[in-house]
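Good morning C.,

I know you're traveling, so I'll keep this short. The sequence:
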Amino acid sequence: MKKRLRKLNLKRKKNKVNFYLILFSLLLMFVASYFKVIPKVPEKDDIHLAILTISTVFAGFMFTSLGLLIGFIDRGNMPELESAGFTGQYFNGIIIGITFLVFSMAVSFFTVINPDFTKNSTVYNAEVFSLIAGILFFLKAVLDIFRILRKVRTFVKEEYEKKQREN
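The tokens, ready to paste straight into the viewer:
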């Protein structure tokens, strides 16, 4: 039981950035809703189609980031990092971002199909805020991929220099 609690505590510490980003997104949503920062629901229904398109594009980029991350697992010192659990925060951030974007896509799709549903400002706010949260996690994923690239390149460079010294 103690091992399980330690492992859970370690995972929580490693996912601290993801947790804070979710809290920031929720706080942003509540503050913007309270101060009515998001404009009223537009009269035209094409805004929902635009949000659907934007969410789809960002979700595609997030899946590409996930593919890149999976491709890096067998490179450099990534297997050691993966076995130690250090890459979970990167995977979790991407998956959370994809979840927000898919939620935004689902709401947008539903509002495009059912125009009467678009009159509800809560639905519109959920649509917009899930898109914003997805974009925040996309930015985090880009920074994470850059960090991983740096680690892999450093490892490859060190291995190359090590081979050069041996020869």
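Safe travels,
E.
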